[in-house]
Amino acid sequence: MSNETLQTASQEYGDSAGEEGLLESTESDTRQFVTFIAGNEVFAVDMAPVQEIIRVPNVVRVPLAPIALDGLSNLRGKVLPIISLRRIFGFSEQEHDDSTRALVIDFGQPLGFVVDRVASVVGVELARIEGVESIRGTVNTELLSGIIKDVGGHAMTMVLDFAKLIAQEFQEIAAATRNVAMSAGLASAADSEEEESGDELQLVSFDVAGQEYAITIEDVQEIVQVPDQIIHVPHSEAHVLGVMTLRNRLLPLVSLRRMFDLPPQNADEHSRIVVVALGSTSVGVVMDNVNEVLRVARSEVDPMPGLLVREGDLADISQICRLEGGKRLVSIISAANLFHHSSVKEALKSVENLRDDEHSDGSVGVDDEATDDDEQVVVFRLDKEEFGVPIDSVQEIVRVPEELTHIPRAPAFVEGVINLRGAVLPVIDLRRRLGLATAERSDRQRVMVFLIEGMRTGFIVDSVAEVLKIHRAEIEPAPRLSAEQGKLLARMANLEKQKRMVQLIDPTHLVERRDIDDLARMAK
Fold it and tell me: What share of the chain is helix, strand, coil (3-state, %, to 5)?
């Protein structure tokens, strides 16, 4: 980065230049340094690898990462790790204030190092840079490359060797800078289950007015949150809420409460839109909340009793699923029948008219159908962060039972076991697996079931948020911060327009190979 650019950055972010000012020099024996304060100590870094100086951005916390990492941020569409120099040096923690800055330094991969304050950018003659031998007895000089005396109003400024610091504190990043090719492939465990799928149904279950319904998962394209703005469609029926924009296309929205003549209720933070496929287009159906992804035997599903079948447009419920020995009944909605309802047809027609208007204005239409450029992931939350897994890797999603059965001498990472349709399912708290603080049980928690090395295993998550389609261009390799994080959290969805980052988990690495045998013994 040029001196002029750094000067502009310093003025923009309020960095005060020292008495040396921002110097320009063409002499070969003068080098430019950025000086800064961290923990009451004055440091300098060679300006060559310094890309820019920024305010400290909001970050996404990363499990299994080095303790010095604050998290990951979005810097103009690129993922930027943010690292605390105070933590690296063992200084006490300090809240960020108006003076706090991040130095973006690039030794093969940009990293943001948080400092208390940037002092100045100075030019220093090489002859004024001394070795560290004179202070080696009193200061740990392992990460220092020299000492500058009497510069910028400071008697002694330590030159920090960031290349050594990265190699010492972030071995995985240092290795990545030597070998840029990072594997971003993600294995799916779903193929091994194909032989079993013929005798089972996979359903997405949800609540509407206290009743539980479900739609077969092959009819569900994605599950998204209710947007702040819904466009009203003039002259539409009461069932039609309007249309929303979903990734640059118009999506008609209908209320299942209104379609079923149930009491109205405003959408809240628990409400979800289930996007259901209808030929070459889609419809969003607003639900009170989404419960689970169920995998049920076809023997537990019965056709709707003949006396209860309704004819005409509202012959929506085609089957009843019997769970928990018949104590829990789930009504399975026929997507085909639901979308033949006149109100839905009218909504689709209105959307087509809106699209025609767009075309008449000369705008380019957007294809509604999913393409190979999209990846479908189930998004869930742990604490304040969002994580995702490929939808094909999820066997099912079930509620956490009131009590888990604890098995004597079970591995420490296992929370307990549950009975899932007559089979023993080992359950692991994903917070503990990722080194996060444990949380009390709540109604929002769910057990996500994965098939790992042929072994079904459940993981407790704080909540399941949505099923999301992500364009592959928005998915990139995550910075490799540690060996374990590099395997388990190898990719990240950087949704810049939504100001979101979703860390993508590879479920095949959720359980170490050496622990698979222990889980198999528990399941017997």
Answer: 25, 40, 35
Element (H, E) at 448: strand 446-452
- Measured CA angle at 112 (ends 118, 24), to 5 deg: 45
**Model's pTM, two decimal places?**
0.70
Give the integer Cα–Cα distance in Å for 378 and 468.
6
Structural contact between residues 103 and 51, judged by C-beta atoms closer than 8 angstroms: no
Total number of residues shown for the chain: 524
pLDDT of 263-309, one tens digit each? Answer: 888 888 888 899 887 766 788 899 998 888 888 888 888 887 655 55
Helix boundaries (H) for 108-261: 162-169, 171-178, 256-259
Give the span between the Cα atoms of 43 and 25, in whole angstroms: 21
SS3 250: strand
For tokens 């300090």, what's the residue?
Answer: 94
How many Å apart are CA 318 and CA 309, to the nearest integer? Answer: 8
Tokens of 349: 């027609």
> Which stretches of 361-436 are DSSP H helices?
430-433
Q: What is the pLDDT of residue 340?
A: 60
DSSP notation for 71-86: EEEEETTEEEEEEEHH
Tokens of 27: 């002499």
List the beta strands (DSSP E) in 47-143.
50-55, 69-75, 78-84, 101-106, 110-115, 117-125, 129-130
Banded model confidence at residue 47, pLDDT cuts 50, 70, 90: confident
- Between the alpha carbon of residue 437 and those of residues 63, 388, 431, 512, the distances in Å are 11, 19, 6, 21
Provide the token pair at 182.
Answer: 């990072």
Helix and strand tally (H, E) in the chain? 10, 33
| DSSP code string of 137-157 | TTS--TTEEEEEEEETTEEEE
Query: Do 73 and 57 meet the contact criterion of CB atoms below 8 Å apart?
Result: yes
Residue 461, amino acid: V
CB neighbour burial string for 342-369, b if at least 16 within 10 angstroms, e if fewer: ebbebbbebbeeebeeeeeeeeeeeebe
Q: Do 86 and 92 touch, CB atoms closer than 8 A?
A: yes
In terms of phi and psi (left: phi > 0; alpha: psi -120 to 50; beta: otherwise), the region of 312 is: left
How far apart CA 226 and CA 284 sit, in angstroms, is 10
Rounded CA-CA distance 136/127 in Å is 20
Q: What does DSSP assign to residue 401? A: P
* 436 CB-contact burial (10 Å; exposed 0-12 / middle 13-18 / buried 19+): middle
